[in-house]
Specification:
The complex is a heterodimer. Chain A is about 50% helix and about 10% strand. By secondary structure, chain A is α/β, with parallel strands linked by helices. Chain A folds into three domains: about 100 residues, Alpha-helical ferredoxin (Fumarate Reductase Iron-sulfur Protein, Chain B, domain 2), CATH 1.10.1060; about 140 residues, Rossmann fold (3-Layer(aba) Sandwich); about 110 residues, Rossmann fold, CATH 3.40.50. Chain A has a five-stranded mixed sheet. In chain A, helix 22 links the parallel strand 11 and strand 12. Chain A starts with a helix and ends with a helix. In chain B, helix 1 packs antiparallel against helix 3, helix 9 packs across helix 11 and helix 12 runs antiparallel to helix 13. Chain B has 15 helices and 16 strands. Chain B is of the alpha+beta class. Chain B has four domains: about 90 residues, Uridine Diphospho-n-acetylenolpyruvylglucosamine Reductase, domain 2, CATH 3.30.43.10; about 120 residues, Uridine Diphospho-n-acetylenolpyruvylglucosamine Reductase, domain 3 (2-Layer Sandwich), CATH 3.30.465; about 190 residues, FAD-linked oxidase, cap domain/gating helix (Vanillyl-alcohol Oxidase, Chain A, domain 3), CATH 3.40.462; about 30 residues. Classes of the chains: A alpha/beta, B alpha+beta. Chains A and B meet through helix 4 and helix 5 of A and helix 2 and helix 11 of B. The complex binds flavin-adenine dinucleotide and iron/sulfur cluster (2 copies). The site of one iron/sulfur cluster (SF4) has 14 residues of chain A, from helix 3 and helix 6.
Chain lengths: ~425, ~450
């Protein structure tokens, strides 16, 4: 595009949405980024004003506006508290796409999204290669948490404590599955997503173990692509569409009653974004996306609301204290808070303790943590302090991206709090 | 602004607290008022009170217009800066310096958020009553500079009733101290009184001393449904005449009731012409007695239904309906103009009649809710500012609303301030001499006219 007139025209199409912001400022009270910086351009009100300023030619620096619009976790807290019902996330996602169309994608992201994520096969083999050799570049930082920090401080990795890429990704452990309906009479498709596949395959295995235990048939096609959100939230709608297409090819037409993910971000993307951002698709593609979205469910919600799993074994000692972090995508986008707690409590040893502000963002926000690590770290520090103050031995959350961020924060603080997914706590009790 | 001056500001607040990019400056060009944005030349965010004072001094030395900004939630353009001017943010000055339980006062920096302050006070078993609808974000400095009110105004008063003292910077960056931590104080001129509602035009607050009170022991909320506005107003008058002062006495008109019901499905009676939401508080015995009296009065004056909240959950439901009013109205049209004309309590029926006529005359959607107990109504005009023809009608309607309010012995603004949005009407409400007196006062205190020029009294 790189034509200013085209940029203005596209921003103009957002106008009907931009104008609904009444500048009341309420979003300041919930925005984690604003909470750290106190800068108006970091809160939804400021970003919307900037987009409007650009569209109405009151300001003339698209790069400056893009920079501000990207300083956002897409956590949705602003939208949830907005009295005027402004569709903030929708505006930001579209604006990012428009701005990238004008400015172009930064080279590193282009390589990742266009080169890797749209080609699941290539991506997988690169990551496997990475997992094999990562010992060369990272050193164990905390035994208990299983993180490792970059041995060579590179620009991107900084002093982050990352859980190592799994030695064996989920797709290597379980390449594909197609098991029939069992005792439950149900069959689900399982979408592990990149994080579970490559960093937390144990979470994926826990899900499979639970499903098998309850007689749920599983459809796990090989060659799944990323859900697309990293590309979309970076404004690369083209790559996003290709990833969605890959997934449609894998899942559409499959025989299953629900599509389950254990990643809050994937669930939100498939359930909400796939059908919502399919404007340019033909009817067939739209129907396929609507059908998939309608079947998509968070694993915790599936276990509690559909399978109605209740703890029925022996009462346990309840001596393992667990606190739950409400992932933004579960709480704000899907309204799921009770179910992850219920799943954790299926483990008879688990006693829940609530931390302060369980629903506050952990600061991860996808690639936000990569681009604005210092800010992400300051936001995460609050979460870390609340986790530690809860005194819990374990912190659990239904989103692997949150798990990664929280592990990083806890590991750097030198604590031994375990970080896990609720399904892991339950799966541990099943033989 | 020249580079040398920018460096001077950076030397005071630190380079990381100076914002000069176009995008950063534009995000301080507006506030919650529906007005055109104006770009400042520089934005600074001092992290200490001392730095705040030096910023004021430097601005004055260079004759730069200075706009102090808390959270920028005022509804009258009070934080829309001057072109070429400096915006100074107070939100990094957010320490509660003291909460004194023995002497019932607190001292805060200006950037403390109202709700956080109220919560900190409550955690110590005390009560800070002023509760503007924006309390989750507004700052104490902004509350004092706008003399913010809230739902509890009728019984507990507004911000000015809690300001015991204000320490502020004059234009030379010198600290002026006024008021005290004692209930009684007659030492010197009542300068802190002058600062309340001054909208950043006379001095820059650096420390505020606030009165605290013991919290009420119990509350009871009820909702009364009326078929016409007149009987609702008569009920309000009768409640007060019975020597009952409810903590809150809120009103919603039919348009607002219908919109809230559409939005929140709270079970509100959509055919009612007026709702009164009432809360009495105090000792349990007194509360029970007063609630009964209020109920009887409402019934006698024709309330067609009364719903008394039986427990905390039901009480919450009553107030949820009120809290939803703005959210519901704001979603109807792209632009929401929240007005604030206030009339003596007894004139509410006349004002409501006039608002109805104005809505018809100018073909506009107007929903009115507000504080019936103190006559502070919020006629809310729902429109689209991009529609030039309609926007002209909105402006004309606003002019007429003010004319009517003043004609009924009321005031332009009960709590949202004058700023630049209403400064042109000031003379109508007061007198030429009032404006000139105020301008001379400002000229004496701020000879170069740097402190938020143009606000309240024009220039
Ligand atoms: C949704 C909504 C609901 C609202 N409800 C109410 C309500 O119920 N009652 C009510 O009264 N108001 C209400 N308001 C208006 C507004 O929130 C209040 O006026 C509030 O006091 C403004 O606080 P602020 O921190 O945002 O101040 P700002 O808007 O930043 O500033 C307001 C004025 O104070 C001056 N100022 C700020 N700090 C200082 C300082 N340290 N020294 C000197 N001057 C200073 C500024 O220059 C400006 O003139 C509402 C606004 C919104 C958007
Ligand atoms: S809360 Fe909503 S309407 Fe208010 S400023 Fe933020 S985005 Fe705009
Ligand atoms: S999505 Fe989250 S981080 Fe982004 S502006 Fe809204 S509240 Fe702030």
């Amino acid at each position: 595009m790189s034509d200013m007139r085209e940029l203005l025209k596209l921003l103009g199409e957002l106008d009907d949405q931009l104008v609904t912001c009444m500048r009341c400022g309420t979003c300041q009270s919930v925005c984690p980024v604003y909470g750290q910086t106190g800068r108006e351009a970091d809160v939804a009100r400021g970003k919307i004003a900037l987009l409007e300023g650009l569209a109405y030619k009151m300001i003339h620096d698209p790069a400056g506006v893009q920079d501000k619009v990207n300083r956002c976790l897409l956590c949705g807290a602003c939208e949830a508290s907005c009295p005027s019902g402004v569709k903030v996330l929708d505006i930001f996602l579209k604006a990012r796409t428009i701005l990238v169309g004008y400015m172009g994608l930064p080279p590193a992201k282009k390589l990742i999204f266009r080169g890797m994520l749209t080609h699941p096969g290539l991506f997988n083999s690169l990551m496997e290669w990475g997992a094999r050799f990562q010992g060369l570049f990272t050193r164990p930082a905390s035994e208990a948490l299983g993180t490792s920090c970059a041995r060579f401080a590179t620009g991107v990795l900084g002093d982050r404590h990352f859980p190592a890429l799994a030695k064996k990704p989920l797709h290597a452990i379980v390449p594909s599955l197609d098991t029939p309906r069992g005792a439950s009479g149900l069959k689900v498709a399982f979408f592990p997503g990149c994080m579970i596949d490559k960093v937390y395959p144990n979470v994926g295995q826990a899900v499979l173990k639970i499903l098998a235990h309850h007689g749920v048939g599983v459809f796990l096609p090989s060659g799944q692509a990323c859900c697309g959100i990293p590309a979309f939230s970076s404004g690369d709608k083209r790559s996003y569409d290709r990833m969605v297409d890959e997934n449609i090819a894998r899942f559409a037409g499959g025989d299953f009653d629900y599509l389950i993910t254990a990643c809050a971000t994937c669930t939100t993307t498939i359930k909400k974004f796939w059908p919502e951002y399919a404007e340019q698709s033909d009817q067939k593609r739209r129907d396929a996306l609507d059908a998939l979205a309608a079947k998509t469910m968070d694993v915790n919600a599936f276990l509690v609301d559909v399978l109605k799993v209740r703890q029925d074994g022996e009462a346990g000692p309840r001596d393992l204290t667990v606190t739950v972090h409400d992932s933004c995508h579960l709480r704000m986008s899907l309204g799921i808070t009770a179910q992850p707690r219920a799943v954790a409590r299926l483990n008879p040893n688990v006693e829940l303790v609530e931390m302060k502000d369980a629903g506050a963002c952990c600061g991860c926000g996808g690639s936000f943590t990569l681009l604005h690590y210092d800010l992400a770290e300051r936001i995460g520090a609050k979460k870390r302090d609340n986790i530690i103050a809860s005194g819990a031995q374990v912190v659990t959350t239904g989103c692997p991206a949150c798990m990664l961020q929280i592990t990083d924060m806890l590991s750097k603080a030198g604590t031994r709090t375990r970080v896990c997914h609720p399904v892991e706590l339950y799966a541990e009790t099943l033989d | 602004m020249n580079e040398a001056l920018k460096k001077d500001f950076a030397a005071i607040v630190g380079q990381e607290n100076v914002m000069e990019s176009e995008a950063d400056r534009f995000s301080y060009a507006y506030d919650a008022a529906v007005l055109e944005p104006v770009m400042p030349a520089l934005v600074v965010r001092p992290e200490s009170r001392e730095a705040l004072g030096r910023v004021v001094k430097l601005a004055n030395e260079n004759g730069l217009p200075l706009c102090v900004r808390g959270s920028g939630t005022n509804l009258s353009g009070g934080t829309i800066p001057r072109e070429g001017g400096v915006v100074v943010l107070t939100n990094a000055l957010n320490n509660i310096l003291e909460i004194n339980e023995a002497d019932l006062y607190a001292v805060v920096e200006p950037g403390v958020i109202t709700a956080k302050f109220a919560a900190a006070v409550a955690a110590r078993g005390l009560f800070y009553p002023p509760d503007p609808g924006s309390q989750a974000v507004s700052t104490m400095g902004g509350n004092v500079a706008e003399n913010a009110g809230g739902l509890r105004g009728l019984k507990y008063g507004v911000t000015k009733d809690y300001v015991m003292g204000v320490d502020f910077f004059d234009v030379d960056g010198e600290i002026v101290k006024s008021g005290s931590r004692t209930v009684k104080c007659v030492s010197g001129l009542n300068l802190h009184g002058l600062m309340v509602g001054s909208e950043g035009t006379l001095g820059v607050f650096e420390k505020i001393t606030l009165k605290l009170v013991p919290p009420p022991r119990s509350q009871k909320a009820l909702m009364a449904i009326f078929d016409n506005v007149n009987s609702a107003s008569e009920a309000v008058a009768a409640i007060i005449a019975a020597k009952i002062v409810p903590a809150t006495l809120e009103f919603m008109d039919n348009f607002t009731i219908r919109t809230v019901e559409d939005f929140a499905h709270a079970g509100l009676p959509v055919d009612a012409n007026a709702l009164l939401l009432i809360e009495v508080d105090g000792h349990a015995g007194q509360v029970a007695e007063e609630a009964e009296q209020v109920e009887a009065i409402c019934r006698k004056l024709g309330a067609r239904g009364i719903h008394v909240a039986k427990d905390a959950a039901e009480r919450n439901k009553v107030w949820e309906a009120r809290r939803a009013a703005l959210s519901a109205l704001a979603r109807v049209c792209p632009t929401t103009v929240l007005e604030d004309a206030t009339v003596p309590r007894s004139k509410i029926p006349a004002m409501m009649q006039a608002l109805g006529d104005i809505a018809v005359k100018y073909r506009l959607k107007i929903g009115t809710f507000g504080h019936a107990g103190d006559g502070n109504l919020h006629p809310t005009i729902l429109t689209d500012r991009r529609n030039k023809e309609e926007w002209k009608r909105v402006e004309d309607a606003i002019d007429e609303i003010f004319d009517v309010a003043l004609g009924l012995g009321g005031t332009l603004s009960g709590e949202h301030g004058i700023g630049i949005a209403k400064s042109k009407y000031m003379e109508k409400e007061t007198s030429r001499a009032t404006i000139l007196f105020s301008r001379r006062l400002k000229k004496a205190l701020d000879p170069k006219g740097i402190l938020n020029p143009g606000k309240i009294i024009g220039e």
